[in-house]
Records
---
Amino acid sequence: MIKEYIKLKKVESSIIEVENVNEASFGEVVEVKSSASDKSMVGKVVNINDDTVTIQVFGDSTGMSTQNTKVRFTQRPFEIALSEDILGRKFNGIGQPIDDGGDIYAAKRYNVNGRAINPVSRVYPRDFIQTGISSIDCLMTLIRGQKLPVFSGSGMSHNRLAAQIVRQAKIKGANEDNFAIVFGAIGVKHDEARFFEDTFRQSGVLNNVCMFVNYADDSIMERIITPRAALTAAEYLAFEKNYHVLVIITDLTSYAEALREVSSKREEVPSRKGYPGYLYSDLASLYERAGMIKDAEGSVTLIPILTMPNDDITHPIPDLTGYITEGQIVLERSLMQKDIYPPINVLPSLSRLMKDGIGEGYTREDHPDVSSQLFSSYSHVQEVRDLAQIIGADDLSEADQKYLKFGDEFENRFVRQDYYENREIEETLDLAWDLLKILPENELDRLSPEMIKQHMNR
């Protein structure tokens, strides 16, 4: 039986407590209506202690009183209505339309909490996704069904990079009829959300995009639901409607900070830097919803973006993310200061699935060896640059001076590319061979003589 309560025990920011409650469930949706406002707000049960229930309210609780505030328990989890009509639409962080397009009418509603894909049901990702960005396609290849985060810093060009990937991505087996993009924005400024929307419109993919946007001036509690609503929509499109779905979520740091605030208000014991001790499992509950499953033609490929506080890659958010996901793309501030776009630092970046999605039959037969050689050579460039700062570039050996030249050319010709430049994988690999010609042949120890002979003369 649905019950309604009209007296609160406590109101603290967006957290309220109700006592003498019977038969409430963890995660249950509640409707909250304050005497100070005619508008109902949505909340969720986040803690149950005997007969006292703690509720997290998604909305502005200003003016809410412990008296004459109605709380109605709905006896259902947090759900959103989904149909193929969500494509081309824009929703707030809890799945309510904000584009004046009307409500979504669907035969079924879906629990946003979802669950991780059963490992037994997973299909191993192997299909190459071409982003048109050389450093990603060659050195940290994105594979269909992979979760590959972007580690960035505040004020860097991660939004432009994400927009470029969305505009240029080509997925094997996907076309306009079965390719969709789900975009989740957490705590973004209005101009950032507008930038993505304009980019989608200009590139002609807006009708294939479903947007969930939580603005910086929206409820901080709403940020906890936003990525879950986006992933639920992606799962529906992929596993029920057979779409190949690319999910972009920005910024996971805002999500984690919202989680920390809720944890603090619930008076939970904090862990590193004040984040809750369950941050790892909470992030995993998001990331592990990406992938491919048996007997389903669709797939969910996830690119979460997170900004590292103080550019610290050992911060709990990127640190834990790195353990869960299958690699990372790391943006470097020093490259951005050299006016290099995209400022991808290839050395700490990697894709753990690329080895099974490149080479003959996928990209080109020389791709694995060329990738390995570029990593090896660019790694040595850093050592030579350190040595040059000590003894001077003029006193370096001839081979080391060629490494210096290779490093500069690699950053300026291979890593750097225009925002609207879309390189085919063959073009990227040919450019890599052109750069490797700078080095002495005896330094190319990751390439076979036959391969060198075959490709150096192209």
---
Amino acid sequence: MSIAIIGAGAFGTALAVALSANRPVTLWGRDTGWAGTRENPRLPGVSLPDTITITDDLMLATHADTLLLALPAQTLRGFLTSHAALFARKVLVSTAKGIDLTRLTGPSTLIAETCPQATIAVLTGPSFAADIARGLPTALTLACADATAGRALQHALSTPVLRLYRTTDVSGAELGGALKNVIAIAAGTVIGAGFGDSARAAIITRGFAEMTRLATRLGARPETLTGLSGLGDLTLTCTSAQSRNFRFGQSLGTRAEFDSRTTVEGAATARAVAALAARLGEEMPIAAMVARLAEGAVSVENAMETLMTRPLKEE
């Protein structure tokens, strides 16, 4: 199985480093001016081994039969539409954690719409690029509706320090990864505003309830949400400043500027979730409030007051 990573951001580069322990890997990016140094400025301090071929030639990269799409959720559809012919009949593994704002669907649906002959999988779970690149032990979820293809991918993409657990619940796995980013922004906001760890624990717990409610309404299995791609990833991103979504939330809480060049998947996903929940008639008060916070439509204090004064009810 030949492997290429499409997207040379921090996470795509980290995956290339990890997977190159098993076999040669191609890493594609739009800007590879750093290739001569073998160190991606988006992942400083990590030297890329010679088993990784770095290229900006998409046709060369798509010679591989298995392509890991390490692209932001909001750009994935446009990218695939523009290059659909290169991705036909490939094994496409999405690592995006988000919900498309236009279509209100996850990455697997976008891939199926643009590349209907492809075999589709999702790689998700609690992981930071720096940890993976440094070879620290990491466990992820690999979701593929085709159990045979999923089993082959599980063996091909696992390494001594990267352990993959397999599921056929693609919807549950990708929704867990997308929705936890929204709750991570809320958790970061709580900490940034000085509301304390007890408030963060409440946000994580009630946020997880929201995640489970929406995901199961959309066909996910409840047990998937309690696994690595749901609760596991939620725990990681709500408790570490390595998470871009958490840091973005902190900036909202402290009213500090945030680097606009940094991709924050949860901000767009919160808006998509709010629209999706309204369409389905589901209550998602935390996600709805994160959407309003990210747009600057409400203050942190008013957001917290609104959540705390909601009608009392059973858990």
---
Amino acid sequence: MKFFTQDSECVQVVDEPVNVPAIIDELTSQLSTEEPFYVMNIDDIVRKHQNWIEKMPRVVPHYAVKCNDIEVVCATLAALGASFDCASKGEISKILGLGVSPDRIIFANPMKPSSHLRYASANNVYTMTFDSDVELHKIRKFCPDAKLVLRIRCDDEKAQCPLGKKFGCDPVEEAPRLIKIARSLNLDVVGISFHVGSGCADFPIYYKAISHAKDLFNYAKSFGYEFNLLDIGGGFPGDIGTSIDEVAMIVNKALDQFFPDKSVRVIAEPGRYYVASAFTLITNVQSKRICLNNKTGDIERMMYYLNDGVYASFNSILYDHQKPKPVLIGQQSGKTYKSTIWGPTCDALDQLIETIMLPELEIDDWVMFENMGAYTIAAASPFNGFVLPKVFCYMSKNTWEIMENLSALTEVCCNSSGAELVINYENVVCA
């Protein structure tokens, strides 16, 4: 199992629990103000995994790689024993490259290019979703040994990112027809999946979706199928201050009622749950414009231009409907002004916050954004030639020891003083 191998990401092992504010203070005093950067707290991801296992012990997490695909994230979760939700041959290749077994991957894109199906089949990734008859015929042609999971639609209308308009068949009208077609094609359907929407806000919808799945398990028996897999998708919260306690209670109750037989394997596809709070983005004020009232000469609005924007980390504003909340780093105080925050590019679309009340900021002031791990890095681009943020990764020695006991860690990291650490199963020694 490879672990922490990207050259751009040096993992720092610190003696105490990871203190993100203290790390940020140290880095902002040392680094150039020209480029934004992330601080990644690996301890946070490990805690999230432990919490998941405690709250939903029956549900095997398959991390949604699309949410944040950097190698440190994926390798950490692989070492912890999580499985993976991949949406393309590129994501499958990335996860297989970490040494993950193909049976720990679900190809959870209902619409798959033929070449991606061929790649999955050639690499023994057989569990995959579908929601149409056309997809069934394509799968039969390119991956006839697939273990198929029928994706049904059961939407949370309040979800941050609804998905039902694009994926999922009606559980009452369409799903039975597709089960019949799959049987006629002699394809192996093994279960039901659903996704209530990314960033779910109506947790009881999981109960409704699980009840629909049970009806289809029963219906499939009349065609000789014995379904054994239930995929409850994603939608789990991951920001600082959020909890999965409520959704876990609802899911566990529904599983006890509708799927008491433990021979049915239950999985989920959490993404933002694992990574949202683990990443903090630190940006810098690169430019500033003071807008005056033409009649009074008073300051009407401040406009600040940061070194990261919607074409990079803040693509989450466009694609994930995020509303970033800036935290100032410094001693800014006094009168506040209506302020607009922009990204660095030449496009007027590159607006982070239209109006916010802030004290006056100066060039080179640092501005921090928490909860920036989900749907940020994965879709960022270097538009206009602006470099993407570096990622500085930290883990405590205690977490390191936990990880060391889980998998053979044989790569090189750094400790907080910058000295290289040779990582092995026996101990951590300075090199």
